[in-house]
């Protein structure tokens, strides 16, 4: 299940990997991103200045060795979140999504995900979306499969009743 907007990531990927000669038809390396002109990068990839700044921060962390993407799978969830959150523009929600959808971690609860909070509100008949601490309490019985519970709740929230 993809959680990004349809076409958003794919559109940028297409511009870099074949839709443009900017990086010889391949996704850019961190060094290529850092060596590129930030304004040109924005235009070529269709990024806002804020997204380009985040991308450059990510490239800096990888290029300096502060972030080793190839070793993240070896780390506990809390360490992955801490390392990713050190990058400008990457917060806990993004780190949670990375844990769930890239590292396939089975017990992630993205308490900052408003869609999940609304799905829990609906499933549990609450008067409003639960606060993060309340969501933690509600989700405690879902351990060690909170990722799977989230997938079901997101799916339920997107389902349209058949009449």
Defining key terms:
163 residues, disordered N terminus, single chain, mainly alpha
Q: Could you please describe the fold and organization of this structure?
A:
The chain is 55% helix and 0% strand. The chain is mostly helical and 163 residues long. Helix 3 crosses helix 4, helix 5 packs across helix 6 (92-101) and helix 7 (114-124) packs across helix 9. The longest helix is centred in the middle third of the chain and has 16 residues, at 49-64. Residues 1-8 have low confidence and may be disordered.
What would you report as the Rg, rounded to the nearest angstrom? 18 Å
Helix count equals: 9
**What percent of residues adopt helix (DSSP H or I)?**
55-70%
Q: Residue ranges: pLDDT <50 for 5 or more in a row?
A: 1-8
State the shape: elongated
State the order of secondary-structure elements, H for helix, E for strand.
HHHHHHHHH
Which band does the percent of strand residues land in? under 5%
Structural class: mainly alpha
**Main sheet attributes: strand count, strand direction, barrel closure:** none
Q: What's the β-strand tally?
A: 0
Instruction: Please give the alpha-carbon distance between the first and last residues.
Output: 25 Å
Mean pLDDT: 88
In short:
The chain has 163 residues and is mainly α.
What's the layout of helices and strands?
Blueprint (H helix, E strand, L loop, with lengths): L7 H9 L13 H6 L2 H8 L3 H16 L12 H9 L6 H10 L12 H11 L7 H8 L6 H13 L5
Helix pairs in contact: 3-4, 5-6, 7-9
